[in-house]
Amino acid sequence: MESLTKALRSKEGRTHLFVMFLGILIACAGGYLFRTSTVLCDIVVIVGSVVSMAGAEQFCRLIVRFQSDIPGES
Q1: CA 26 to each of CA 22, 46, 51, 68: distance values in angstroms, whole numbers, following the listed order
Q2: Hey, what long-range contacts does 43-50 have (CB within 8 A, 24 or more apart)?
C-alpha cells in the first residue's frame, strides 16, 4: 500500500494518471463528436483507449518499481 501512495504522490505517477485521464477523455469526446462516421469514431475511440492503457501500464510499472525499493512489501 505504501508503494501506491508513493506512486500517487510522485510527479511521474501524476503524469501517468493524467495520461490515463486524457485517453479516456479522447475516447469519450471523440466517440461523441464523430458518432456519425462509424470508421472515424472507431479509430478515435481505439486511439483514446490505447493512450489510456499506456498510461495505466506505466503507472503499474511505477508501483512495481516502488515495491522493489521498499523492503518487506510484496
Answers
A1: 6, 9, 9, 33
A2: 48/23, 48/24, 49/23, 50/23
Distance CA 68, CA 54 (A): 21
* Size of the chain, expressed as the number of residues it contains: 74
Query: Residue 1 carries which DSSP code?
Result: -
What is this structure's pTM? 0.82
Q: What average pLDDT does the segment 40-48 reach?
A: 94
The dihedral region occupied by 10, where left means phi > 0, alpha psi between -120 and 50, and beta the remainder, is beta
In the chain the first and final C-alpha atoms are separated, in Å, by 9
Instruction: Give the cell for residue 17.
Output: 494518471
DSSP per residue, 21-66: HHHHHHHHHHHHHTTT-HHHHHHHHHHHHHHHHHHHHHHHHHHHHH
